[in-house]
Amino acid sequence: MKRIILIVPDQIKMVSGSRTNNYSKYYDVTEDLIIKMLSGITDYHESILFEDAKSIRVESIEDVK
Length: 65
What we know:
single chain; three-stranded antiparallel beta sheet; elongated
């Protein structure tokens, strides 16, 4: 396993909808949203993302025993 320390924006953007109707909303970053974001979406009509990849930094990656 790895321990990863990330610096991320304060909010996550959630985009939902279909081919004809899309909407987005911003949510404060929480542990649950990060896990949902990293573990894959079960609803193909929903995307969770940080809007600007340049605002994400990896501080460290280390092995965990």
